[in-house]
Design goal:
- There is one protein chain.
- The protein contains nine helices and no strands.
- It is an all-alpha fold and 193 residues long.
- Helix 5 packs across helix 7.
- It is globular, with a radius of gyration of 19 Å.
- The mean pLDDT is 89.
Length: 193
């Protein structure tokens, strides 16, 4: 499932680069934003695949292994990295960005709204992962998690385990991929100024 998630992010990055190319002539600010977006998607794809560690069969460097919770060559599993906060923020923006920003940008900057927020039809791809990680963050508040035990370990016999978060991460990957597909279509519908 992690490989499919990485492939979706990589494909979304490629689509964002093509969208950027289409926007370059008449809408350079959006073109640059889409290049930054593509770069972010590429990094997420690399992180999901631990930067090819399993493909190229290289060991995790000792310095990384000492701080990485899963002994993988990636940054998002480094102890203290706010991974849940990232999922929650991105998920909530993807789910509610268009709804919340429409009153502010709807008439003044409809193109920004169109290109920089996910359509409502994709909201569930972003909302469900955000809700899972909100739940993960609430568990220590709602339950007495034993010292030294992670939230996924605590939840294993109960509601959801750490491995069950992978489908939610895949869902988020599909959300970004579908957003990039739609953005590519929107990038070509703009008439020259």
């Amino acid at each position: 499932m992690e490989w499919l998630t990485a492939v979706l992010y990589l494909a979304a990055a490629a689509l964002a680069v093509v969208a950027s190319g289409r926007l370059w002539r008449n809408e350079r600010v959006y073109a640059v934003l889409y290049l930054v977006f593509a770069g972010g998607l590429f990094v997420i794809a690399g992180e999901e695949a631990s930067w090819g560690q399993r493909v190229f069969d290289y060991a995790t460097p000792e310095a990384v292994s000492a701080i990485n919770e899963k002994d993988e060559f990636n940054f998002h599993n480094v102890s203290g990295f706010p991974l849940h906060l990232a999922f929650i923020s991105v998920g909530l923006y993807g789910a509610f960005g268009r709804i919340l920003l429409t009153p502010l940008l709807g008439e003044r900057a409809p193109r920004a709204l169109e290109l920089l927020t996910a359509p409502r039809s994709l909201a569930h791809f972003f909302l469900l992962p955000a809700l899972l990680y909100i739940y993960y963050e609430l568990v220590p508040v709602l339950h007495d998690v034993p010292q030294g035990m992670t939230v996924p370990e605590f939840l294993e016999p109960r509601f959801v385990s750490g491995k069950e978060q992978e489908p939610f991460e895949l869902m988020l990957g599909f959300g970004f991929f579908l957003f990039a597909v739609q953005a590519l279509g929107k990038a070509r519908t703009r008439s020259p100024v």
